[in-house]
Amino acid sequence: MSSPIRTVTVEQVNAVIADAYSQSNHLLHILYALQQRFLHISHEAVREVASHLGLPISQVESVVEFYSFFYGTPRGRYNILLSNCTSCGYMVGDENLMDTLCQRLRVVAGKTRADGLVSIDETSCIGMCDHGAALLVNGMPITRLDASKIARIADLVETETPVANWPAEWFRIDDNIRNSSLLLKNDFAAGDGMRAMLARNIDGTLAEITQSGLRGRGGAGFSTGMKWKFCREAQGAAHYVVCNADEGEPGTFKDRILLHSHADAVFEGMTVCAFVIGAEQGFLYLRGEYRYLLPQLQAVLAHRRELGLLGSSILGQPGFNFDIEIVVGAGAYICGEESALIESLEGKRGVPRNRPPFPVTHGYLGQPTVVNNVETFAAAAHIALRGSTWFRAVGTEKSAGSKILSVSGDCAAPGIYEYPFGVSIQQVLDDCGAKDVQAVQVGGPSGTLINPVKFNRKLGFEDLPTGGSFMVFGQGRDLLAIIVNFAHFFAHESCGFCTPCRVGTTLLKNGLDKIASGHGTQYDLDEMKRMGALVKRRSHCGLGQTAANPILDSLQRFPHVFEQRLAHSNFEPYFNLDGALEEARQVTHRDDAAAHLK
Amino acid sequence: MSKIRIATTSLAGCFGCHMSFLDMDERLVALLEHVEFNRSPLTDIKHCDPCDIGLVEGGVCNADNVHVLREFRKNCKILIAVGACAINGGVPAMRNHFNLRECLEEAYVNGVGVENPQIPDDVELPLLLDKVHPLHEVVHVDYYLPGCPPSADEFLSVLGDLLAGREPALPKKLLHYD
Amino acid sequence: MSTEAKQNTITPNTITIDGQEIPFKDGQTIMDAALAAGVYIPHLCHRPGLTPHGSCKLCVVDIGSRGVSFHNSDRRVQTKFSVDIDGRSVSACTTPAVAGQQISNNTPALNEVRKTITQMLFIEGNHICPSCEKSGDCTLQAMAYHLGMLDGHFPQFFPHREVDASHPTVMLDRDRCILCELCVRASREVDGKNVFAIAGRGITAHLIVNSPSGKLADSDLETGDMAAHICPVGAILIKEHGYEVPIGRRTFDLHQVGEIGLEKVILAKVRHTDE
Ligand SMILES: Cc1cc2nc3c(=O)[nH]c(=O)nc-3n(C[C@H](O)[C@H](O)[C@H](O)COP(=O)(O)O)c2cc1C
Ligand code: SF4
Ligand code: SF4
Ligand code: SF4
Ligand code: FES
Where in A435-548 does DSSP place strands (E)? Predict the structure, then answer.
């Protein structure tokens, strides 16, 4: 069978580009359309896109190579990406579901099968951690994987059954809300927050947001009122509102629920922000893994336009013009970092900028820009409606309001838990039915690894800030395997801009692999400490600055998981000596004693 | 006082470091009052006795290199990686760009002027590693003497430090990688 | 209270580097101020006159806790780093000078960090100095000498990287590229072209050429362009001028990397001004 790729003509490429362009001129969207249609983005396609958009060829090329979901060589007609997260990943106990699928379909992970039917690979957490092992097939999530479902998937692929005809219930994604507080308990009718806002006017609304004590839910906890105020005061030809829906931190899926079931509150929060800072254009930057939410989000936007909540003269206010565009990412955790996100919005690689200047003064297209998390905007909408006192009534002194947690891992009831700030780890563990807990990773791999003696610590900016990831590891888990997994995650997601993180995350990964394989010595462990400290302190952005946290935390709090794996020698080679002779053995057909190294 | 015992060898190197060592010329005579040579191409002694210092030139490219390097590590109190190849693979490591089969086929099968094309498979020959590696990836190395080759002055500086019981510290003006 | 009182006694528009008070003008970075005052802060990706980049991190300095804090809204950075005892670590080349900053620069601890970063740059690429035409003129190598680096310390990555010899007068050997983007910036900002870019990510990030074939020959790069000369390492070389200056008479045989204002000498590689 001749592969369809060879027969692609420039005309076909240009037709796809033109069609995609008519819907959105965003580079990422046009590349997505090409990837969908031709299963890869050829050099020729890169050149055509560049000429169509008037961009340098090198910019288009560099973007194609940066994002995980774009490929320079053809993927299979069924492109399957299994999450490698510790909560929704393909390792289920000792069972490796990716291996199973690869074997059934006779594919090598990462390589497209010769007939072009299927390709299988792993990808960073896809945010389905409350649904068990999960994968994306041509971008659509399938969850609750087990060996039997993997077998059925293999059959459906082999019989070339269109994904649309696969069992519908496989694609069902639940909200799994287990505990509700401010945001999830209270109804929110589209437009109510904005009407209250108009009644208070700009200054009043900003004052309300500031007084509420709302701090960013993306993790750093910067005062939202202050951020909006700085942006409002900044001079610029235009102001922009950006909602950060990149949610790439492994173990985090709370934005998924907000976008799925509370999109009106999120968009309304963005509109409130636009009103305050004087923006006419907003963007929701949606991670590529959540593309399946796109139609529904577009419908909510359309509905809001019908209601006069978006567009020009919003709610009849002359001069209040604002609309929101959704830009979909393509597999890059770093694009959650606000300045990298802005670069991505501008159609570039997601490389964090130098700061200062900060986005509030020099953001999208160099103009004043507010970037807030999904949950922050949802909270802002509720505050606009219900006032700051309502919000402050819950939470703690420095951490007003509630926090939505994504609880996953070894517990009876993974899912969404919204608590007033100040809740203890133990409380969460009790509520989610976690027993015999070995450790909790708060805030995802970039956050903090907590041991049981510290389960009385409280979630909040005073003690343990978190973007919302809460991963539970039971006694049965191999903690070192988890640390190794996280190290691989950071090495894979490093943008490569700065030396400490680009090289350091790979050195950490290699060093941990050596230790985990039983070939590490005390010296290697000391090297991990030294490199971890350097990467943490000297890296350019938050990714590098937190990439060593799991290693440094576990070296401090769980030293035995490393020590019990150490080789009891002074030195172990950095590569497998006998393995390094394998190629020579094959070429010479030798297998005598001298053809081996012990 | 008994003499300091030194062993030297060249693995995947070009003997340039050894030649440079001999560039000490007449200073070698003075040095020999304090040191004696054990296993070394200079003495033709084939195996190491316990030594104070091992000087190893060249990287690790085959199984035999691994055995020799291990013998040095086992017998030498202080092991010094001498020269660019020992330190990062050097010029021999340029073959790491290609896989081993490509290298061997180019040398023994497809190369210009090759007669009786055949990849050698004699069991007497050490097998090649798929890549050339620096010494410190295979054994622990105590000191490094960079240069291609390190100058006679560099050798003297480091040996002088060690003979005097000091931590070796290469003066900056002697430091070079070429 | 006492810190506040102290801060008021500091003369406006000076910073202190390793105890030495240094004036600065508004808009200057720590690097600008330092170089203007003849104080060397190690740097590889920085070149006065080009937009600061901040990627190599050779210029990391520590700012004492009395430095003015930024309203950094990045999550984690704030919460995690306010507790660092040695103050903040910043890149001198991108961080604005702010009155009263107490900066550590030429300390054994920082030079050790810089040596490690230099080693990381060596082992991630393929740096075989004995066979490199840039040897002796190479700023990376000179930096390594400056920091007393004897070896790469880490296991070599031995990456596979492409050589591009297509251009009639300019050679691109990616094995030695340290991703400093000096060529990228020089081409855009000085030559008014856009010949180079970085593609990919993480450890696979690499330099690409902006031309239909991706080859240098197809680009509008010319021998006279600054981008053809600015490479601090031997990744971009001018063809047919190899070894015109013998080893032993090259830039860093005659100069130290820490001399201020060496850029002109380095750029005029073909014939040294002071030869
Ligand atoms: C590597 C990295 C990834 C990040 N990912 C996200 C993310 O997925 N979602 C998010 O809201 N913030 C993320 N952030 C934080 C953003 O940079 C930024 O602080 C946040 O969007 C600000 O919104 P907030 O003030 O509402 O929290 C990330 C930061 C870093 C350094
Ligand atoms: S720390 Fe990592 S992710 Fe951040 S800029 Fe540096 S290389 Fe990129
Ligand atoms: S670029 Fe510099 S460091 Fe790299 S091989 Fe050439 S001279 Fe050595
Ligand atoms: S080619 Fe040279 S100047 Fe360009 S990025 Fe690489 S090292 Fe820097
Ligand atoms: S010189 Fe400042 S980061 Fe490179």
Answer: 437-442, 448-450, 469-474
